[in-house]
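Section 5.1 Outputs to date
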Amino acid sequence: MGLMDKLDRHSTLMNRMGDTVNVDLAEAMADNKISGYELRNAVMACMGCEGSNTCPDWLKAHDKGAPDTPEYCRNQALFERLKT
């Protein structure tokens, strides 16, 4: 898988995780709660996450929503901050 494919995959995972824990990343950027730089770093962190292979299954199992990200999520603190 090439770099662009990995970026797309993990950007999608980030957006799905946001939807699952009720965080709109685009809205957070529009409201200046997160910068493009922070979002890029979050996607890069997701790319290095050891749980990213099981993340699609976790997201599918929580398709109605979840109060928090899974414990292994490298962006857990970011999502928590953006929920408030």
